[in-house]
Amino acid sequence: MASAPKTNHQVTLIPGDGIGPEITDAMREVVEATGVGIDWHVVEAGAKVMDKEGTPLPEYVLDSIRETGIAIKGPVTTPVGSGFRSVNVALRKTFDLYSCVRPCLSMPGDGSRYEGVDLVVVRENTEDLYAGIEYDVDTPEVRELAEMVARTGAGEIREGSAVSLKPISRFCSERIVRYAFDYARANGRHKVCAVHKANIMKCSDGLFLHTAQKVAEDYPDIEFETRIVDATCMGLVMDPHDFDVIVLPNLYGDIVSDLCAGLIGGLGLAPGANIGADCAIFEATHGSAPDIAGKDIANPTAEILSAAMMLDHLGETAAADSIREAVRATLAEGETVTGDIKRALSGSPKGCVGTKAYGQAVARRVAAGR
Ligand code: NAI
């Protein structure tokens, strides 16, 4: 009897803005070269739809993700200091995508100062200073907070202050640290390092640290260590090979992710996934790079490697491996690479190719390997 035809995976695609449309086009071409059947549900978010829809994150985008359970997105610009709140943060909160996983793996020819880096940043994605609980300068709320702080003898909030709250919960700390340990076990990794600043923030970071120490007791097969965030940054720059899985609260995770991207050739090479219990959204670590948008010069590798993570998540591991192999081979050959890589290798972008041509070169390698 003939086997039933394989049904296509349903995936929501948010191209985003800035370099988003260029890098997601390249990503899509590479994924399609694997032959894995995907129905793309393309929806727009961000400033592009703000005028028309009155919101940067229309309900139909959320509905599409609810339906597919899987999305891949390009970066979305967030206005600085004022304007609408981050679409990225809103998506993470709406779908409770509590774990942000960012592997940092050296590739031959990536132009980095380091070789052999192989670590994974696991960032808590829902609370901390990213919770978006803020009180503006000269508001009654800040005055009320200042009174409470003075009354309880905790300190002083100076007149004319704005305040952002940093909630860290036992629940979210436990689930992210557990995720990091489970990830380590499932991926043959040997060590988890929990990062904090509990010497100063004894309550919030203290809770994260103590929770991590308690969770670690359930994983005697995985080595566990703790480090203070500033010392972690120095340690990463001095010897990144000393790290394996790093688990951090939200803000430190954001900053350390970019630092780690710098260890493997820059933001153009660092993929990522936001994972929750019912849904996952894949995206590069970098932002919308308005300085290079629309010029066909962005490096789409981070987005392409994010798609490989998505294929792993969908159970299409052979296709995911073929993409990683094609990226590795293309970078190692060093001919058909984007300007950021050429510049890192030789000091000049001379001889580089554009976003589209690089994507096509990777796609050709993927197709040739089928
Ligand atoms: P960015 O990551 O967009 O750019 C930082 C630097 O890296 C720029 O010089 C840029 O040209 C370069 N760069 C980034 N991606 C690159 C790539 N693929 N190839 C080559 N060079 C690349 O960070 P920035 O400028 O701080 O943020 C710009 C906007 O992106 C902001 O509105 C920010 O809020 C947003 N953003 C969005 C994210 C998301 O959608 N997940 C994540 C981070 C920032």
Structure description:
The chain is α/β, with parallel strands linked by helices and 370 residues long. The protein folds into three domains: 9-104 and 270-370, 3-Layer(aba) Sandwich (Isopropylmalate Dehydrogenase); 129-167, no CATH class; 168-263, Rossmann fold, CATH 3.40.50.2300. It is 42% helix and 15% strand. The protein is built from 13 helices and twelve strands. The strands form two sheets. The chain has a ten-stranded mixed beta sheet, sandwiched between helices. Strands 6-7 form a two-stranded antiparallel sheet. Helix 11 (317-333) packs across helix 13 (355-368). The radius of gyration is 21 Å and the shape is globular.
Q: Short summary of the structure?
A:
The chain has helices at about 20-35, 45-55, 60-70, 85-95, 140-150, 170-185, 205-215, 230-240, 250-265, 300-315, 315-335, 340-345, 355-370, and strands at about 10-15, 40, 70-75, 100-105, 120-125, 135, 165, 190-195, 225-230, 245-250, 275, 280. By secondary structure, it is of the alpha/beta class.
